[in-house]
Every structure is written in C-alpha cells, then in structure tokens.
C-alpha cells in the first residue's frame, strides 16, 4: 500500500513539474462531457451532444473557435436541460438549434442564446472575445416542429434531434463594413450536428 502511495506522489510531482515548464496554451479543443448522466438502461435515448467547429458550417470556414453542446432530455420528453460552451471566438450574437441534416442550412427552432425558447433577439454586433460557458438552462420542445428539410419529412423537433437531423449553430457579427471572416459570420461561425453519444463507430 505504501509503495502505491509513493508512486502516486511521484507521478503527481512529475506532472506538476512538467506543467510548470510549459506555457499556458492559447487555444484548446473541448472534448470532455459536461454532464454526469445517471446510469440507467437506454440512457443514450436521453443524452445528446455535439462538438462545434467552423468545418461543420455550410459552407465551411476557417474559424479557430470551438464549442461543445450537451442536451439531457427528461424521461417524459417534456423538458431538455442543456449547456453550451464556446471558446476562442469573438462577437457572438446568438445561438440556436436548427433543423437540418449535415451539410444543409436549416431553420431555427430553439433559441439557446441570448434567450432560451422558441423566439429571441440577437445581441448587438461587436461583443468581443468569449471563452467558456455561453448558455445553460432548460427548454420545452412540446409543440415545436421541424419542417421538411432536404427531403426529410416534417417532425417534432425532439424527433429530429433523435434522428440526427438537428444541429447547434453559433453566430457572430462584428458590425457593418467588416469583411466576412472569423468573428464576423452572421449566418453561423461554428456548428455541430446533434447526436447520441456512441451512435457512430
């Protein structure tokens, strides 16, 4: 037991020493889960997540921004808790859940930022740098429908999320006269298709 404790102390000291020798990174990739979900049968039917990048936008862009969104659906399907992180990104004005398959731009159905619900108003342009949690809370999907998009039938928004036919989109705007590019992509700067964890190999 004492030998194991010494190994742990030695490993901790080694890691601490290595950490102090390196400069703090200026950007990072977010991959960690944001919620510890309850262990119950079929939990993947209730938990959805996505990693947001500029590569997923339509068309793709060279944004250095990244994000992570996690949705947790209540067992009765009447409410959805969420958390949305966005980092290394400038001038965020709004974020939503849109309807549509990968590679297709679809309509907004749920606002996640700056308000939560079925409608909202974007923030003014030029808000500056953002790193960290952008929004968290609860929305209610009852009565919200995704229209037919790219040949997919109309369906409730929660069914679209379960089918991989919805995505999270974070929009930026630097203001009039600024050329399009990172920090000024009003149609969407980082995007990620919602999916169940482990749904793809």
Structure description:
The protein is mainly beta. It has one domain (44-193): Immunoglobulin-like, CATH 2.60.40. 13% of the residues lie in helices and 33% in strands. The protein is built from 2 helices and 10 strands. It has helices at 2-21, 157-162, and strands spanning 47-53, 66-73, 80-90, 92-99, 108-113, 129-139, 145-146, 155-156, 166-172, 190-193. The strands form 3 sheets. A 4-stranded antiparallel beta sheet has the order 1-2-3-6, with no helix packed on it. The longest helix is centred in the first third of the chain and has 20 residues, at 2-21. The chain is globular, with a radius of gyration of 19 Å.
Q: What are the salient characteristics of this protein?
A:
2 helices, disordered N terminus, 10 strands, 201 residues, mainly beta
